[in-house]
Records
---
Amino acid sequence: MTLPTFDDIKAAAARLQGVAHRTPVLTSSFLNGLTGNHLFFKCENFQRAGAFKFRGAYNALAQLLPEQRRRGVVAYSSGNHAQGVALAAKLLGISAKIVMPTDAPAAKLAATRGYGAEVILYHRYEEDRAAIAREIQQKEQRALIPPFDHPHIIAGQGTITLELFEQVGTLDILLAPVGGGGLISGNAIAAHQLSPATQIYGVEAEVANDAYLSLQKGERVSIPVPPTIADGMQVTSPGEITFAIMREHLAGVLLVSEEEIKNAVRLVLERMKILIEPTAAVPVAAALKNEPAWRGKRIGIIVSGGNIDMAKLVTILA
Amino acid sequence: MTLPTFDDIKAAAARLQGVAHRTPVLTSSFLNGLTGNHLFFKCENFQRAGAFKFRGAYNALAQLLPEQRRRGVVAYSSGNHAQGVALAAKLLGISAKIVMPTDAPAAKLAATRGYGAEVILYHRYEEDRAAIAREIQQKEQRALIPPFDHPHIIAGQGTITLELFEQVGTLDILLAPVGGGGLISGNAIAAHQLSPATQIYGVEAEVANDAYLSLQKGERVSIPVPPTIADGMQVTSPGEITFAIMREHLAGVLLVSEEEIKNAVRLVLERMKILIEPTAAVPVAAALKNEPAWRGKRIGIIVSGGNIDMAKLVTILA
């Protein structure tokens, strides 16, 4: 098991320079007043392809050997990783096949195809997407680009905190959603290198608490596919690498309810005028829930993405 | 009739320094690809109180004499001017009464009261808000802060283009919504001082075409209160000052349908991840409609605000 280092994250940042957007950090006097803290929203919903996933995908694809690039890549994803890999592949001139669930948001399916990738559909509750991807990998000799449990993916995601700290300085607390753990792992390494005192919390939906249970037990725990509105969290267990990093760096995992997630989407839309997807609203919900010890704190929130079907948004707002 | 000058706009910018937000300019590769132009969205939906109106209101209130400040202000508004005046009054320690229609978006009523202003309700289709405001003005000796037809208001709004040109350079075309004309007037003066070749178009809803008709006829035309979803355009005629400025500076007024306005709100939300109100979507709709002569143009769009009831948004998205 190779763990990514801070140098890997800096190298990723150099690769992403001029390719990924340096996303803005937004603040809201209203939400600061509501919580009594200083909240800094790092807006990866404005990232290319609408989510942070592009960073890790591009960092991984850019490091493929010429022979691998020629044979192409294959990936599986509940949504944003698919678009990230598809766009990165397009920019680098690499063929991409993406295994996606039949119930993935229509906009994500369309966007993935729009970037020129071939989409292979599977049934989320019946088939094993990893097995399907492995079959394509072996048959066509394509490089498998995993959604989170790879040092290159993790290092790419970690570039978010490099930017965030440059933009606003160091933070007391950093909140990020935990799906497979790639996002929080990379950013935990970056944050603790730059500011060892920063407390880093992963946030999960209550029904998608695989990282919470795993950290509690001290080993990786598997849960059934969680029925959460936060579709980026429909992951059954943390990765091997991401679990090791989370154990080392996390102050804890916070849990929020489905209702709290929906309220956060609504409030951020109404007051901050930005669209965030349910998975991105998970750490926002934790900030609104507001731990008793948090007063006057500088809290960074990684807003992971903004890809949400309008039909789903309507059900949240109505 | 005193027309505001470019120097008035520069003086307004100095007053607003550190008080109003310097709003970001966003771009979208998707919308650029769709139109074949380079679109620059000047995002006043991120302005304080959620709309450009704060600029003009603060610029006007900051110039009141000490005696006037003591007696307070009164204003009438279909929404955003109310919040702008209320917030400016709060920041300057001035008492404010705001005459608002009973059917104003609930969020706008709540926000206006939230800034500490007293709201006086009237029936939009039965009562004359100007008369009600004048009565309060005379009885309580309050300064009347008109929504658009005043040099201080117009100069405040013009600071948007000062920033926009600093942020992205000069433009071939500038698009802005026209309600009473305060926004476009101030920005037309600023744009033509900095770049005489820039073509400036006002954009109206088809059913709210009072400026269009007025410019066609060469005199101010009144229409019935227009039943448009763009509530910032429920104005029956251009102002005296704003009409004079529009006559001098506008290349024309473009018209868009209610359906085109709704589509623009939806598309900007889905692709750009930002919430804009229907009035702000009016010039976006014109950019999407795309005049045949516009190809490869640098087009600035003043996104006037982001205040929209979630219930209304749902009807647009559903």
Note: The beta strands of chain B are 25-26, 38-43, 73-76, 96-101, 118-122, 143-144, 173-177, 199-205, 252-256, 298-303.
---
Amino acid sequence: MLAIRLIERKRDGGRIGPGEWRALLGAYVAGHVPDYQMAAFLMSVYLRGLDRDEMAALTDAMLRSGGALDLSTIAAPRIDKHSTGGVGDKVSLVLAPLVASVGIVVPMMSGRGLGHTGGTLDKLDAIPGFRSDLSLAEARAQLERIGCVMLGQTGEIAPVDKKLYALRDATATVESIPLIASSIMSKKLAEGLTGLVLDVKRGSGSFLTTLERGIELAETMIALGAAHGCPVVALLTAMDRPLGRACGNALETEEAIQALKGDGPADLMEVTYALGAEMLILGGLAPDRGSAIETLKGAVSSGAAAEKLKEIVEAQGGNPAVVDDPALLPQAEAIELFRATRRGFIAQIEPRAVGRGIIALGGGRATMEDTIDPGVGFVITVKPGDWVEAGEPIASVFARDESGLRAGAGALRDAIRIADEAEPPLALISHRVTREGVEAYAS
Amino acid sequence: MLAIRLIERKRDGGRIGPGEWRALLGAYVAGHVPDYQMAAFLMSVYLRGLDRDEMAALTDAMLRSGGALDLSTIAAPRIDKHSTGGVGDKVSLVLAPLVASVGIVVPMMSGRGLGHTGGTLDKLDAIPGFRSDLSLAEARAQLERIGCVMLGQTGEIAPVDKKLYALRDATATVESIPLIASSIMSKKLAEGLTGLVLDVKRGSGSFLTTLERGIELAETMIALGAAHGCPVVALLTAMDRPLGRACGNALETEEAIQALKGDGPADLMEVTYALGAEMLILGGLAPDRGSAIETLKGAVSSGAAAEKLKEIVEAQGGNPAVVDDPALLPQAEAIELFRATRRGFIAQIEPRAVGRGIIALGGGRATMEDTIDPGVGFVITVKPGDWVEAGEPIASVFARDESGLRAGAGALRDAIRIADEAEPPLALISHRVTREGVEAYAS
């Protein structure tokens, strides 16, 4: 295998075979293919694309580059959820304990935030003592015992993906659906899943802003799952505004805890129940969406869902008392109300601007090397379409100090637009995509 | 200037501005833009292309990255020839002394061979003592004194081109007309030319095998020359078989010397005179092709052309006696006739196979680090369309030893196809391209 021959072939629109993908990635991880050759290859892939067979082979090669969770001795359905990422997206923290409490085994592997989007791991890190750097053996033992684990991407899983992602990030080859889909699926397949539910965000705050690209990603992931015997269902959800009210790590963890205890914001609950219902149906634990949501609501009201989060936190070294008393989470030093600058309709709450505001407060990352302050962020209590009076409190800024308060207020002034009229926002959940096709989602 | 923004823009089909080209190349040479980012950028350029203004800006940025020959004090026409390269192409060695002997100033900068194609510098190196690594100051002094210099690409000229070429070679981004044209023109413009004649090879042994791509390159170079005030004329010539009889460094130098003394093969002379005539016309030293060729033939028969080669060799430290006695050139240890394997027509003499044969003999380079044996090669005395009898000598192999003879004979068996019928080869000179357009070439 000469890397340059594969670059030439992909450059000219040709196909790379399964053995060639394995050889190329193996040589890259071993350092025999230099970054500059892989960069030229990735740009060829970006511009020429991959067909379904090539994506399946690439996914397989990445999957085989590392270890995997062997969960074949666990009889229960093993189902995870993946989100393409957004602002205020704490769904994983609610969803994993919730569906685990009703019998789904959830081997959830998450990432850290980068740029304007947050990451589940950073939110979990806000819990005192919580350890997300489990080995595959530890994760497996915990799954057998309590049916849910929430861990970071270990070096054991698809190690080539980490090296490739860093290169893609530096060479403008991230936003390629074949590369995104293969990267996600290689990691998810390593979790030993029997099903996967995908939350594809759309709108200005999402990775793939258009509906068409979102559906293309969903269909690609569904095909990749099918090629590996893992059924995938996708929902397209709105990310033209933050999800829920809290934006910032500890603030979101607190909101997730409240949600598990029956006090979550309506939009967060609607998305969580919709995704959870798909997981229950995929796992054969509910016949239809209606009964699935009944089951999930029951787990919240009975306290079983919150109890499951306590078990997870305790199993991973964290202080389970945070579930009863979220004030044990890291707190901001300085808090200030943010008031409407004029009367009118909330016309827009721009998620990227909110995300940039969190970075400005010290609660997000511009580069992977940045450390973050878990306590800072925003709680935005209005939604697009709400009517507000001038001076009415519409948000709170949580900061480290006075200058943080000023930076946070400035970010909210950029993010929140108030006008005489407001266009309706995107439907919270607009489409459902399965192997059978795309359908409008009827709430 | 953030390199990643330029990669993104070119990836998406956008344009790079003149200041951005200068900044990008400057940062690359300084090591601030890593090879992997430049590789992704080059692949974007390969697949998205550059418009004429971008090519002119890139050429200008490469030209400005280094020094140049300031020949403005030389009143005579300063004209060079560039060939896209082939097998047996020793035209430069004949043409430069020939046109210099009739009054054209020729600041000829050449390269080394790589892969199946040879390089003029390697042929010059076969002359004992010859130095091609002159400084720009030395080259200028020699031009003022004898009107011709034949030197290698010095680090003073377009230094970024050397670094970029090595990267393109490793990332399958060589065969891009915008990158080829900008690279050639940046170096040629640094020679301070008043005109340039281009020999664009076509056919299986050439770089751009199709007529369409050859014409595209010619038109691109003509436009780039026009943008920099340097008129360019191109001839499309055949490289579906080697040019002349000798293939291999010292063998080709010997053939060039014989050509200057009036004893060159017909095809070599026809191409040399045609290119020389364009140089004389561009330089205003002849009114038309007929009278230009008369002038050139006169310089051969009078001995002035061979005398000019002696002057050049002597000025650059070589032994001028090689012109009178080519036996002073390096000689092969082992020589053997190669005979026709059957009777029939010579249907093909495949230049790439001949070029690979020279590499197998030790007379060419697979990588730029290889050292070469100047004495080895082939003299092929037949041409496509010739009728041969079985066992008739049709070539000689010049090798280092017995095993070289066997390798050489094997290469010729691959290269030379004898059949009952032969398709006519490509016209030796098929088209002439100028700013006015493309015209069929009438010999």
Note: The interface with chain A takes residues 4, 7-8, 11, 34-40, 42-44, 46-48, 167, 170-173 of chain B (CB under 8 Å).
